[in-house]
Amino acid sequence: MTPYRLARPLAGRNARPGVRSRQYLWNATRTAPQRRQLLTLAIETSCDDSCVAILEKTGPTARLLYHNKITCNNRDFRGVHPAVAVVSHTEHLAGLVQESLSFLPDKLKDTDNGIGSNTLYVQNGTGKTQARQKPDFVTVTRGPGMSANLAVGLNTAKGLSLAWQVPMLGVNHMQAHALTPRMVSALTPSQSAGDHTPGFPFLSLLVSGGHSLLLLSRSLCDHTILAEADNIAIGDLVDKCGRAILPDSVVAAESGTSVVYGRLLEAFAFPSGAVDYHYSPPRRRADEITPFDYSAGGWQLQPPLVNTRSMNRFDFAGLNGIAQRVVADRGEAMDVEERRVLARETMRLAFEHLGSRVVNALQDLQKSKQDGADSAPAVKTLVVSGGVASNRFLRHVLRSLLDVRGFEDVELIAPPIEYCTDNAAMIAWTGMEMYEAGWRTDLSVLVRKKWPLDPKQDGGILGADGWTNVNVS
Ligand code: AMP
Ligand code: ZN
User: Fold this and answer.
1) Which residues, 6 or more positions from 342, have their beta carbon under 8 angstroms from its beta carbon?
2) Of the N and C termini of the chain, which has fewer Cβ atoms inside 10 Å?
3) Helices (H), strands (E): how many in the chain?
4) pTM (two decimals)
5) % helix / strand / coil in the chain, to the nearest 5?
């Protein structure tokens, strides 16, 4: 098990201009003062990445003080092995938390207010003890994800919350992907002056190893599902296609124990990057259903859901089945160039499938507005987040489709790659937004394997048990 990325301080610990005295806050304070400084330690263990972050937020501005992850060995199993991932979390999470504590801000002289100590005495690597500021609360991914994996993080967070006598927030992983661009704006000095951007409402396309969701995000906890996957997720499609299409030499050349098939497939399909795209978006809906013919190899790819008009569904299993059959049928006859064509065209059709649902949703919203529905929100932003959003060709396909279908004014926002894949920074940010809205999680809660975002499905985020709001008596 090797670290995915070595820890690094993302900001100088001592560079804290303008830091004011922090209030100790348990449930005693009902409304948070506007510009008080908040500090959280966050944990993410929903899949195979053990992630820890420390985030500080003062008014609209945030600073990431620590951000690290260790990904478990997936090379030997050609994918995520749930039990091995649990072992990896159990092995590595405590070490990451210990390492992170040295990145907490220095203890300020005036921060104790008499209710209790907000100082942590932390031992650094050389055995020296340092006084550090204690986080105001602990944030952890409560779901959705693999139960046993989530439980390692949740139980660690409960332990920290108890030991430090601070609240815990158990947040929704998919909500965190949707809010990530708001964190990025808060972390960017030139953008962090006013309200967090993008402001609500916006469309969210969440594309990850376990999810393909198109959402209308109206507020922190209100994310209406406009389209979701029928069967496998888009990340599963790229991983399965990566395993089948990539020549063995490409996977073998990847060092370390963590193989990200989606990233390798993109690099293989477009070795020179954007100059290899040669992409013309379908100008009309009818153009989206044209099959791709590769006559030299005698195969054809059918776009997903050509025969239905189910604009609220994604179907990636059919396309995956065709791609797998092509590889199996062609066998040894398939050279590297043919594999590259298959990789490109499979991604193109899958990404256009995502884009067609986005365009349809925007057209529907536009129509409702034209028809005079006052409640129809004016959406000006499309957020693309989750591991597959790292794919630059996906971003290009979506941008091109928006432009050619009359939505040039819709801004496409995708977080930097390190925040697209699973990470604890986005969990910390979600904790910040939920904490500022008054939410706290009871320490008796269990993990949630499934946890819908849409309030119409079991109450969505707030439909889970264990929430209390300190602003509501
Ligand atoms: P997540 O579940 O959000 O951590 O996302 C993991 C998924 O993102 C996996 O299926 C990866 O293969 C996929 N992924 C990561 N990077 C890329 C990329 N550049 N292109 C396509 N998929 C990717
Ligand atoms: Zn994820």
Assistant:
1) 245, 294, 301, 323, 326, 327, 334
2) C
3) 11, 18
4) 0.88
5) 40, 20, 40
Which residue has 């104790």 as its token pair?
112
Q: What is the pLDDT of residues 235-248, one digit of tens each?
A: 999 999 999 999 99
Q: Which secondary-structure segment (H or E) carries 70?
A: strand 61-71
Model pLDDT for residues 318-341, shown as the tens digit of each residue: 999 999 999 999 999 999 999 999
Cis? peptide before 3, omega within 30° of 0: no
Pick from 140, 162, 160: nearest CA to 151: 140
Q: Is 112 exposed, middle or buried (0-12, 13-18, 19+ CB in 10 A)?
A: middle
C-beta neighbour count of 218 within 10 angstroms = 16
Q: Which of 347, 121, 372, 386 is nearest to 238 (CA)?
A: 347
How far is ligand 1, taken at its centre, from the CA of residue 268, in Å?
15
Expressed in angstroms and rounded, the spacing between residue 209 Cα and the centre of ligand 1 is: 6
Helix (H, G, I), strand (E, B) or coil at 129: strand
Nearest CA to ligand 1 atom 18: 263
For 456, how many CA atoms within 13 A lie in the half-sphere containing its CB?
6
Contact 82, 144 (CB under 8 A): no
Q: Whose CA is nearest to atom 10 of ligand 1?
A: 235
Whole-angstrom distance, CA of residue 40 vs CA of residue 432: 8
**Could you tell which of 46, 49, 232, 263 is best to mutate to test the pocket of ligand 1, judged by most ligand atoms within 8 Å of the CB?**
263
Distance from the Cα of residue 62 to its chain's centroid: 18
Instruction: Report d(CA 462, CA 448) in Å as an integer.
Output: 13
For the Cβ of 209 lying below 6 angstroms from any atom of ligand 1, the answer is: yes
Residue 422 CB less than 6 A away from ligand 1: yes
Ligand whose nearest atom lies closest to the CA of 394: 1
218-224 mean pLDDT = 96
111-115: average pLDDT: 49
pLDDT at 306: 62
Q: What is the mean pLDDT of residues 85-109?
A: 91
Cβ 196 under 6 angstroms from ligand 1? no
Does the CB atom of residue 388 touch ligand 1 within 6 A? yes
200 Cα: distance to centroid of ligand 1 (angstroms): 26
Indicate whether residue 239 lines ligand 1 (CB < 6 A): yes
With b for 16 or more beta-carbon neighbours within 10 A and e for fewer, the 338-374 pattern comes to bbbbbbbbbbbbbbbbbbbbbbbbbeebeeeeeeeee
Report the distance separating Cα 315 and Cα 234, nearest Å: 9
Report the DSSP pairing between strands 202-207 and 381-385. Answer: parallel
| Atom in ligand 1 nearest the alpha carbon of residue 422 | 4
